[in-house]
Queue: 4 jobs
Job 1
Amino acid sequence: MTSWKITGRVRSRFVFGCLQFLRFGWLELVSCLFPACLFAGLAISKYVDLPIARYDALLVYCLGLTLLFWLVGLETWREVAVIFAFHLIGLGLELFKVQIGSWQYPGDAVTKIAGVPLFAGFMYAAVGSYLCQAWRRFDLRVSGYRPVLTTILAVLIYTNFFTHHWLPDLRIPIALGLLIALRRTWVFYTVGVRRHRMPLAVAFGLIGFFLWIAENFGTFLDAWNYPDQINVWHLVHPAKFGAWALLVSMSFVLVASIKSLEGRLYHRGTPATVATPQATTITPADLGAAESPTGSPAESAAGSATGSRAESAANTTAGRAAESTAEARAGRVEVSPAETAAVAETSPQHDGANRSGQ
């Protein structure tokens, strides 16, 4: 993982590092708001007597959460659509896995179909919600992303979850192919006053690990059980960690498709949210939102609303400074130090100097 400083100086690197870690943890915590609420519902429904079946109550609860997140603006309608798409993908996998005996859902419910409660898809939708929230709160951008190849591999990963029961298990070859496809793919994110980056494959692995931990909590709360957990609970097999890391790729492809659409179509004049080899290259100039410490949600919204105007003003100022510099070189006018600095900041050499910090 690498990073470069955007603004500010600190006297103690240790103190600054601790503050950055706390900021990062807080942003992760609020990004997990939907999963946290989901697990709160699982815990309450296990230990509190309900007037209706547990799984029916959880379905109503999750639908209400989704509606609430949309009404208060925590998620856009496009993000809600992506979350429901992942809900359906997860539900299809659940229907298959329960039928072949991979795991089971104890208890009856009106909304239980072929042994699978409809609320089960929301456990997959929670992953999509986390990605959408993290994308916004960390101001995520992705460089070197190959959407077609990554999508093909994600579909193969999902298909292999079905076919490996009759055909050879290809998850390792597909995982290696995914690592190759993502070898030059970086995810950029902002914490406080610094812009960081990490390989996207590493991000998939970290998310998969925490999903494995979440699955242990889910089975402990009897949301579902594996065959060897029916009588006595114990940890979920560590191999599930790899399965979750692979399945995250499918969720990322869905979210990235929407974010790419938003960056190129709905927010013209700004850098694409997802940078492919044919799209925008990430530069420090593209990271204008991260040049000041992270403020309140209201400040962030105001910054988004005025971003295009500020960018136009900056471009105009830089252009005028460049013209003045050109005239000065011709011996016609004098150039102030501020105008010279403006030209230096927008020159390719200056951009290269900023990039050297990566």
Note: Residues 151 and 253 are 6 Å apart (CA to CA).
Job 2
Amino acid sequence: MRKRILSAWAVALLLGQVSLVHAQENEESHFWASAQIRTRGEYRNGALSPRGEGDKPAGFINERARLTLGYERKKLSLKFSAQHVGVWGQDALVDKNGRFILNEAWAAFHLNDSWFMQLGRQSLVYDDERILGGLDWNVAGRYHDALKIGYRHGGHQLDGIFAFNQNDETLIGGTYYDSSKTKLYKNMQSLWYHYDFASAPVKLSVLAMNLGQEGGDAETRESDTQYMQTVGTYVQFTPASWNLSGSFYYQTGKNVSARKVSAFMGSVRASYSINDSWTVNVGTDYLSGSKKSDATYRAFNPLYGTHHKFYGAMDYFYASDFVNGYAPGLSDTQIGVGYKVSSSVSMGLNYHYFATGVKLESLNRTLGSELDYQLDWKIMKDISLSVGYSLMRGTSTMDVVKGGNHKSWQDWGWVSLNVNPTLFKK
């Protein structure tokens, strides 16, 4: 670990010297570096999935150590980001097999003032991160190996995203892709259009995604790619003290099990700033579900969104799986309040009422209620502290579709320190 960090610093210093020399020849060149140490301690007593009767709580400390280098000049941008993530004590005191990996590595070529091409490992973050999100809450984050072709002009933005994944540099045997470990698609083509209205505080986005998932046989390595399409829109309206947003997405095609898909989701949210200190928010999300007897699969899949942001901080839904073959969907009604104590301290309290998206045989639709509290303190410009606590009160329906025992107390607490300075810019 120490050798890898020293090597990364050596590369940073070398690139810094190269950039200084180049800057003398071209004043439009820029080189920058940033670092992040994010440490989070967690107490889990029913997070991600409900705990069963008699299950003891767990505790750990995880950490992200990240070094990011960036370079920009006219028509060219580069970004390299390497990180080590894990749990304190996970590695031996003398470790020869550290997990210091490149989580971002891309180059962007600006063809002219409007068009660009970005190639490599990159984070795909769009709109409110409902379908494609960076998942920064996770210690590792989420990144894609993809080609992005983009257009920016005035209020118009257009991105085409293309990806093709394989397990290794195979010589023969077709293109079977084993996604059992990566949980990735085999190929993906997406088109995203966004427009900022100049005459009104309105933003509009449209997304169309074609996702190819490997449905073949792992033993024979016979490929059988199944294609599912997701299309939808996101709208945001921000007049004065209001922030109003809504989204709708529909899925069709076939899922990885070659089952015909017809599913949808919708969301409406409203936030109002009472004054400089107080805000209130309400919202509702609905993701369609499917019964086991349905010939057509009707459960919506939010794919690669940042689910922690929407469906409760305890991550019961879509950040973790349903059990016993259920795919009941979700209805999530929310209300919350935010209070800004000072310019550096703020807090929020949010309540969620959860129910299944579809009525299941012999089960009540109510899943339970969750209460989430979070306090954020910006200690200085590049150091922040966050503290959170959540509790869930589930029902017998929760036991069936998620496991655990709803009569057991379910709660979760955490504290996180984030140090994220910009080291230098040249």
Note: The two ends are 28 Å apart (CA to CA).
Job 3
Amino acid sequence: MDQERSVKDQLPYPYNQDLSAVLRRMNRRTPFSRQRLANDPVTASYVLAGMQLIRRHLGPGAQRVLNDPEDDNSLGRPLFSFLSQRAVVAELANNPPPFTRMGTTATLRCSWRSHSDYIADLLNFGLWSLHEPALYDSRIAPDTERLVEGPEFVEAAHRLCYYDLTTIVDGPTFRLELIATAAAEGDEVIQEALAANHQGAMEPWKQVYQEMFLARGLQLRPGVSLDDFAGTLAALASGFALRRISNPALVSIDTTEQRCIFGTAALALLLGCVEGVAGSDATGVSVEDAVHDLVYGRSPQDSQQTARPDRPCTTAGAQQDASGEGLPALPLSGEHALIAELDRLCDERQPPEVREAAVALRERLCAHMPD
């Protein structure tokens, strides 16, 4: 045991750590025996070998082997081994009519120069953006119009996110995309297929967002592009889909109300990245400043121009309601009444020039008033 421990201690991190809480299915009856086997240097060696294979085939730095040394496009794709030529030919028998239900590997080889070419074309087809929900979909078209006009913006956004997430989770395309993404490093064919899929899926939605912003009098905040906004929404959808597939309990989907957390996240993203074109004090404020304003009550830019005193100059006879406006509880003197009115004018919902003048006058009055 001491000799085993000595070898174990010489292993690199984290293989030199206690692995009994990680390797929990060791083939031993007693907890003591399972713990000992989990920490055996031989066990660690098998674990390392498996991790090396994962890195070799999935990356980073995945090794790519040519099936035909004279053909640069004949990369082997071990993750798609279930799509061997024999497996594809056998699967023909399950095709519905009017598709062909009989074939041979010879016929398959006649249609594609190599099996690698067949896999490449299959990926291009499987990742084709038309497999994703698009604007022509009868479910989606009405709600995309509601994003542009009408009073049901929030409800339409929730339904669209529900449709998108359920379509991703219930279809094979996203799962194929996950495998393709894992094998994409160093494989230009897969990278091009993924890029074409992303672009084809994003472009129609970018057009909708542009029309929505124009019709609703909205614009993206400084530093956020249309590609950023659309890409972040797509990343949210993929993230929630991945969590839903791995464990449905992590992402609940309400099929009755047609809602899910993706809808709430999309609205939150819209709230943070979009602002009014005109008539809003927040126009021109970046996402970072908007968050600062949310947390601290004012943005760094506003604080330089309209900063209020650290200690509010309020009177004993004034109280604050939920909206922040002063409500006199007792009769106020002339000076106190003026302060209360200035408090109202200092509210950030007032025009900037009104706030600026009110803050300056309020500070001068407070400086001459007794504590």
Note: Confidence is low (pLDDT under 50) at residues 305-333.
Job 4
Amino acid sequence: MSIVLDLGGLGPADLAVGPSALSELMASLHVLAEPEHHSEAAGWTARAAAAGPELHDELTVFAPLWARYRCRLFFPRALPLAASLHEELAAIAALSAEDFLELVAPGVLGTNAQPVPPARELRAGTAAAEDYTRRCLRRSYARGELARQLVAAPLELRDRLLAVLRNADTAFFAEDWRTLRPALEDHAREVRRRLAARPLGAPPAGGWGASAGGTPISLRSPADVLTELLPTAARVGPGERVRLDKLQIDEVKVAPRPLVLVPSARVWPHLTVKNEHPSCVVVQYAARGTSLAGQLTVRDLHHRLMALTSPARMELCRHLLGEPITTSELAARLGSSEPQVSRALRTLRDAGLVRSTRDGKLVRHRLATDVIQRLGHDVLATVAR
């Protein structure tokens, strides 16, 4: 499953890159709400929870807005990007009831598999509002109650949410943001530098990657830069199309809207694509240097797990755990032929589970324990015992 972004028709002015304090706060609240999914941030989670214990109940009320389906309210909607959280919160405070409903109602429902009625129809007492509330309730009691409050009094809920966000900023986020922001801004400058590596003037008539006369040029296009930024992204087909590994199927034509890239330190391992607002398409991603290395595509993960389903390959892994071993020695230990062992090693090596190094005329193989460990402690313990 994947989302394909079609970047054709985008010019230099249609791409913006920069951190967003509000988006980062949302990502932080997601980690705080689902700590079991973010063991890599356990230390930060404990400190943030201890800094604002009085916020727990209110954060729980609004938690559906920063669950897996992130509410569009927390992402940029205008260029240039806001300079501060204060500016982003002020923009929320200025929203009308209908605009707030339009941005928040899909986030409360929390899925794009079901349509949400237009905001003008979500008035208390209408059939559309009652049906919407029932659908949210079927997903969870928390979503149903939040939907009921949203429909009944959108501006009251808006102000209550703003109070929660400001209190979270005071309790733990402001200090955290002072630490995170410089690195994210440095990262954004580097991405802008890559995007600016083009001929002076307008993009070529033939689009990125071609000169005005149609002759190919070597400069990187926005699609090239995006695939460099995102470990699970890949170019597909003709044109400026990029496939993103996501648990949904969609093809998004970005232009004539701008594309906004929002680097984050807290969003890992998630990649968020927000396409529903007419103002812009937003991609929030983990900036390099702020996340664990080695993020996999679903296909790569499948290959690694399948490589371990064979009892013979699992036995081979157990021999390779302690020391580097040659193919011939492995064959002798296992009572197999060298061609059989070579085929098993090739499968494991192609999956990234074994590393082979040459030592003179010999080639020695060893288990990539760091890769196995990232698959899970139980997998490594099974190999090791």
Note: The first strand starts at residue 2 and ends at 6.
